[in-house]
């Protein structure tokens, strides 16, 4: 069953049940109050008769009963055996209505010869001191006719409302299901054509269905962006791996031809093959680092002082680099929750990047802010062209491919750096002027 049909049927059924309950309640409450009102009126009349008998000793009971005779009914007194003593009526047929004696006050509703009656019976004492019942019975056909009319009015009103509800719930189901149908159709198109089609949003209201469509479109945009980057990454990675493989293959062929006869060719081939193999190994390790699970990083984080980690890393690299590395820091302790090995790798990547593109000194600055810690790495090198700054964090992107080949860069370092920063909940900024140098600033939340 379609969602639209389910919505239409479920809303209609629920509202029908509520209507039936409401109308039945109205009917029963009205009937009960109307009958209670008639009973109360007859009880008041009975009390008036009794009071009249007690206060007016000169009037006979027959006279009093005739004085209070109702418009359509009978008033009578009944002895203990249930026999009528005195009766006054507007219709002699009412004299045949059965009378009974009761020790308590009784209020009743009954039918007689296809008519409806209400009656009350109240114990009292007659002029002779005998305990009797004063009974008043009234024909209330008019009241039950009104109740009957109310019943049919409620039935017809319920039918009309049900028809309106069925039509409007169908319209409501269509309004609700239309965005879902569009979403389903878009998904089918994506499945069949492999495209990244988005939903056309015609209604810009802030309801949940519009929000769902907008969320789907954002998801598709991100998937398309990720897919494009993945394609570019696979293409670039294939190209990067193809180059050393081509070199190795060429030297293998060279060895087959001249390796045994010419030691210089053998030496050159072994050195080149080893170099390209190391390059492939380094590239593979970088790719594996990019694929490392974020859950693993998060589970291994610990709160520690990052100042000695930064200082130790700088001292270790300064011995390997032919550069002076200066550190600016006014704090002896900066406590942060980090993954130590990833944090060290982040520092190594930025310092190594600064070393490759600068022949001057490198400056590392630590700033302990209120809500974050800023770590800046500044070099006085060649800088990065403005048009290239938006792409330096892309995988396998290199500003100067010739220089990267010479310095041994893989184009993955900054991609790994920004991933590590994001795994720590931070972000990284770049300020660079071509010919003057670059500053990479890591901003990590506390």
UniProtKB/TrEMBL annotation:
<dbReference type="GO" id="GO:0005524">
    <property type="term" value="F:ATP binding"/>
</dbReference>
<keyword id="KW-0902">Two-component regulatory system</keyword>
<dbReference type="InterPro" id="IPR036890">
    <property type="entry name" value="HATPase_C_sf"/>
</dbReference>
<keyword id="KW-1133">Transmembrane helix</keyword>
<dbReference type="InterPro" id="IPR003660">
    <property type="entry name" value="HAMP_dom"/>
</dbReference>
<keyword id="KW-0547">Nucleotide-binding</keyword>
<dbReference type="GO" id="GO:0005886">
    <property type="term" value="C:plasma membrane"/>
</dbReference>
<dbReference type="InterPro" id="IPR005467">
    <property type="entry name" value="His_kinase_dom"/>
</dbReference>
<dbReference type="Pfam" id="PF02518">
    <property type="entry name" value="HATPase_c"/>
</dbReference>
<keyword id="KW-0812">Transmembrane</keyword>
<keyword id="KW-1003">Cell membrane</keyword>
<dbReference type="InterPro" id="IPR050428">
    <property type="entry name" value="TCS_sensor_his_kinase"/>
</dbReference>
<dbReference type="InterPro" id="IPR036097">
    <property type="entry name" value="HisK_dim/P_sf"/>
</dbReference>
<keyword id="KW-0472">Membrane</keyword>
<keyword id="KW-0418">Kinase</keyword>
<dbReference type="InterPro" id="IPR003594">
    <property type="entry name" value="HATPase_dom"/>
</dbReference>
<dbReference type="GO" id="GO:0000155">
    <property type="term" value="F:phosphorelay sensor kinase activity"/>
</dbReference>
<dbReference type="Pfam" id="PF00512">
    <property type="entry name" value="HisKA"/>
</dbReference>
<keyword id="KW-0067">ATP-binding</keyword>
<protein>
    <recommendedName>
        <fullName>histidine kinase</fullName>
        <ecNumber>2.7.13.3</ecNumber>
    </recommendedName>
</protein>
<dbReference type="InterPro" id="IPR003661">
    <property type="entry name" value="HisK_dim/P_dom"/>
</dbReference>
<keyword id="KW-0808">Transferase</keyword>
<dbReference type="InterPro" id="IPR004358">
    <property type="entry name" value="Sig_transdc_His_kin-like_C"/>
</dbReference>
<keyword id="KW-0597">Phosphoprotein</keyword>
<dbReference type="Pfam" id="PF00672">
    <property type="entry name" value="HAMP"/>
</dbReference>
């Amino acid at each position: 069953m379609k969602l639209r049909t389910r919505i239409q049927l479920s809303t209609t059924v629920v509202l029908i049940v509520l209507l039936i309950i409401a109308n039945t309640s109205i009917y029963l409450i009205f009937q009960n109050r109307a009958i209670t009102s008639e009973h109360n009126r007859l009880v008041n009349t009975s009390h008036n008769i009794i009071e009249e008998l007690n206060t007016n000793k000169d009037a006979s009971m027959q006279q009093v009963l005739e004085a209070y005779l109702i418009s359509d009914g009978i008033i009578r007194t009944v002895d203990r055996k249930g026999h009528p003593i005195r009766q006054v009526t507007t219709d002699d047929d009412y004299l045949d209505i059965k009378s009974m004696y009761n020790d308590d006050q009784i209020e009743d509703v009954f039918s007689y010869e296809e008519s409806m009656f209400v009656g009350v019976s109240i114990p009292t004492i007659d002029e002779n001191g005998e305990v009797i019942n004063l009974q008043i019975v009234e024909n209330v056909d008019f009241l039950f006719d009104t109740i009957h009319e109310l019943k049919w009015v409620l039935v017809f009103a319920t039918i009309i409302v049900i028809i309106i509800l069925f039509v409007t719930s169908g319209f409501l189901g269509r309004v609700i299901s239309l965005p879902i149908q569009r979403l389903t159709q878009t998904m089918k198109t994506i499945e069949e054509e492999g495209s990244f089609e988005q939903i056309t949003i015609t209604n810009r209201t802030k309801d949940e269905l519009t929000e769902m469509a907008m969320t789907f479109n954002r998801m598709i945009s991100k998937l398309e962006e990720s897919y494009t980057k993945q394609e570019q990454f696979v293409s670039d990675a294939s190209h990067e791996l193809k180059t050393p493989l081509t070199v190795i293959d060429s030297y293998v062929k060279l060895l087959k031809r001249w390796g045994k006869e010419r030691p210089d060719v053998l030496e050159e081939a072994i050195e080149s093959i080893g170099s390209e193999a190391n390059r492939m190994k380094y590239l593979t390790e970088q790719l594996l680092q990019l694929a490392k699970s974020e859950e693993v990083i998060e589970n291994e984080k610990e709160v520690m002082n990052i100042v000695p980690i930064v200082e130790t890393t700088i001292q270790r690299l300064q011995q390997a680099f032919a550069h002076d590395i200066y550190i600016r820091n006014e704090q002896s302790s900066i406590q942060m929750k980090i993954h130590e090995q990833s944090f060290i790798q982040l520092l190594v990547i930025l310092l190594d990047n600064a070393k490759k593109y600068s022949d001057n000194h490198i400056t590392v600055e630590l700033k302990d802010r209120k809500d974050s810690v800023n770590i800046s790495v500044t070099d006085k090198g060649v800088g990065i062209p403005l048009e290239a700054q938006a792409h330096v964090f892309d995988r396998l992107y290199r500003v100067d491919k010739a220089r990267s080949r010479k310095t041994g860069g893989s184009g993955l370092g900054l991609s790994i750096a920004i991933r590590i920063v994001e795994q720590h909940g931070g972000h990284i900024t770049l300020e660079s002027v071509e010919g003057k140098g670059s500053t990479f600033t890591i901003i990590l939340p506390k």
